[in-house]
Amino acid sequence: MASTVWKGYISFGLVSIPVRLYAAARAEHVAFHEVHAVCGTRIKQQLFCPTCNRVVERSEVVKGYEVDKGRLVTATDAEIRKIAPASTDTMEITEFVKIDEIDPLYFDSSYYAVPEKAGAKSYQLLADTLEKSGYAALAKVGMHRREYVVVIRPRGNGLTLHTMYYPNEIRALPEYGKQPKVKVTAQEIALAEQLVKSLAAPFRPDRYQDEYQRRVLELVKAKGAGKQLKGEPARRRAPVIDLMQALKQSLAAKKPAAQVSTPVRRKRAHA
User: Fold this and answer.
1) Number of domains within the chain
2) Which 8-state DSSP code applies to residue 165?
3) Which of 29, 57, 187, 198 has the most CB atoms around it within 10 Å of its CB?
4) Is 79 in contact with 63 (CB distance < 8 Å)?
5) What is the CATH number of the domain that holds 13?
């Protein structure tokens, strides 16, 4: 059963909705352990204090923040809990925005908001109102030892939340978008549009799988059975020199077989 990652209220105006948050998506990967190559035993990591010159237990460890070079200020969990913001218990909606106005670059993690029994009607009211109006809600929530801005949007007769990065967390790249303006011809754009249309399809996420992870698992399974897998040769692509030719060849490769013209045999007239 899924575990609750946050429990509290969503509020707007004088309406409070008791909800629980559950992680909507988690990244999957093949997890390797660190193993001693000599004997094949899993390595155990220990915490070591260079001043006391000994291994320390987890119970002896506290959090510390470096305020100056080499000077640390420590804080206990109890001290941190005391200064937690109100958003730790209540997500107060501060404004409503159009979802398409938010740059996806700001989105971080996704969560399902599930109502408690007492908040079922007010939850449905907010979900239906957002669905009908086309707006999403912005609020702040305190969890995982930090405060997030979240966008709340309707999805599948429920409410989904996305934590967002703050503006100072969005990295700027000086050279991004600064490349010199290159002239593209109308014919090249027309061919590129044809290529886009030939690849256009409804969004079906089930069509995509992690090929890298699948191959790693095949490698582990093969080695476990005493076999070896042959790797694939690396493919190198050369820069496109003739853009028009590359577009034409791409379109020709995408043309369905049914559209390829075939010679028609004419029936001979009977004498």
Assistant:
1) 1
2) -
3) 198
4) no
5) 2.40.290.10
